[in-house]
Amino acid sequence: MFVLLQAKNQTFTWDEIRKAITGREYFSAGPLLEALESRERVVLLIDELDKVDYGFEAMLLEILSVWEMSIPGMGTVVATNPPFTVITSNKERTLGFALRRRSFYMEIDHPTAALEAAIVARKTPHLPQELHAFIAGLAQALRGLL
């Protein structure tokens, strides 16, 4: 950043440089910040939350509690329009109680073999029905090994 500022043949103080590199223009927004700043109501999907560290879960808890995010050196960003948030988990670890308490928690099982065969048939209607049933049965058997 300092090199870019100096390339413009301008002289900057360290305070000006510090302000430039902690300002919103320098900060690259990710999906969380984009969802908070969106003028329209958006869907924020946080996939496989159980695979991230507890620090991220704590930050997410702040966002879901008060719809704002604290960014060190930059300040607090308040949601323009709180996003509809969907969180998925594969249950590799238990999510924190505070997060679960603030959520609508629903466990969804895999479909039955018959339903799974019907889903496969809709995607591959040109294949024989026996193959659809075999694929569904194989998927169920492989899940059973885990």
Write a short abstract of this structure.
The chain is mostly helical. The chain has helices at residues 2-7, 14-21, 31-37, 54-66, 97-101, 113-123, 129-145, and strands at 43-46, 68-71, 75-78, 84-87. A two-stranded parallel sheet has the order 1-4.
List keywords for this structure.
2 domains, 146 residues, 7 helices, mainly alpha, two-stranded parallel sheet
Structure report:
This protein has 146 residues and is mostly helical. It has 2 domains: 72 residues, no CATH class; 33 residues, no CATH class. 46% of the residues lie in helices and 11% in strands. The chain has 7 helices and 4 strands; from the N terminus they run H-H-H-E-H-E-E-E-H-H-H. The strands form 2 sheets. Strands 1-4 form a two-stranded parallel sheet. The chain has a two-stranded antiparallel ribbon with strand order 2-3. A hairpin with a 3-residue loop joins strand 2 and strand 3. Helix 6 crosses helix 7. The protein is elongated and about 75 Å long. The N and C termini lie far apart (49 Å). The mean pLDDT is 84.
Largest β-sheet summary: 2 strands, parallel
Helix fraction?
40-55%
The number of strands is 4
Determine the N-to-C terminus distance.
49 Å
Helix and strand topology:
Elements (H helix, E strand, L loop, with lengths): L1 H6 L6 H8 L9 H7 L5 E4 L7 H13 L1 E4 L3 E4 L5 E4 L9 H5 L11 H11 L5 H17 L1
Parallel strand pairs: 1-4
Antiparallel strand pairs: 2-3
